[in-house]
Amino acid sequence: MKLLLSLLERLTCQHFFTVLPTSAPQMAVAELVKGVPWIFSGESVHLKCSVPGNVSAEWRYRWFRGGEQLQESEYFVLWKARPQQSGKYYCQGLRTTWISTQHTLHSLPIEIEVDGGWAILQAPPLPMLVGETMTLTCRVRDNPRLTEVILYKDGVELQRQPGPELRVTNLTLQHHGSYWCRASWDGRRETNSVISEAAPVSIIEVLTEPVLEIVPNDPLIHEDRMLLVCQVQLNAREPVPHIHYYFYQDGLSLGPASSQDRVTVLRDSGQYWCKASVPTLGLKRLSEPVPYGRVTGEHSEHMRNQKRIVVRQSPFRMRHNADQWHQFS
């Protein structure tokens, strides 16, 4: 009888545990709540760890730098930091239930740079967009009253200002590079001057140049048709505007503007390209032409000339009859 009860108990437990729902592990979030990522030695930063959507849950938090576990707490304070404490900091949430201890995925890292020098050029940590204005700040240890700040890019002087803030307006891709600053101030008997370490600045286009992909054998469409895909990236601030897509063959439009980045067309030889337009930003870009089937060199040169004037075509003209253009769905 005892053996029978033991087997029944074991089977019941196994059945119970197999029906428990499982979910993908969550990711912890590490954030900088006080201070800046690039600090002077002797300064402090405050970090916080959390698990989104679990305010009432009894989570504990572990902090790491690289592969080293630091401490277990919700907040982590780098107090009077030293240069040796520079690195990537991240956290993990964990909680103990009646079944087991659950662990979240590690958070994305926050990189803290502790500078032992006298000057720091604070630059945007994320890429800036073409056309925007960038503000750079030349910080000097102990905050003396500066008399002159010089901004350099890739070894070339860009501007001089009496204060620590430097602004670069109407950014272009040519502004991508390494920046540093030289700050000067008057001491008791002499003028002091210090130079910061170089800070990288990344500039990206709002709308990249489209790339047209021709997929002649897509299993989801009819065998006498092929798929055109217009690949483009929109790097815009919130709210993100909509992209309008246009497709062309041999200088003629294959249909009206669409919010879809792909269309299906009859399989036919010719030169194809696409256009991406963002009307709210006044932007439009054309892809390079892509040949399909038998296209002669003379035909290719003619199509390159057609590409230059295709933007001015309005209203659109169908390449074939109205049944030929189909949006991909």
UniProtKB/TrEMBL annotation:
GO BP terms, alphabetized: cell surface receptor signaling pathway; immune response
PROSITE patterns assigned: IG_LIKE
Keyword annotations of the record: Disulfide bond, Signal
One cellular-component annotation, GO: external side of plasma membrane
Entries under Pfam families matching the protein: Ig_2
Record-linked SMART domains: IG, IGc2
Top-level taxon: Eukaryota
Listed InterPro entries: Ig-like_dom (IPR007110), Ig-like_dom_sf (IPR036179), Ig-like_fold (IPR013783), Ig_Fc_receptor (IPR050488), Ig_sub (IPR003599), Ig_sub2 (IPR003598)
GO MF annotations, alphabetized: transmembrane signaling receptor activity
Residues in Ig-like domain copies: 25-92, 109-202
Name recorded for this polypeptide: High affinity immunoglobulin gamma Fc receptor I-like
Species of provenance: Salmo trutta
Higher taxonomy: Eukaryota, Metazoa, Chordata, Craniata, Vertebrata
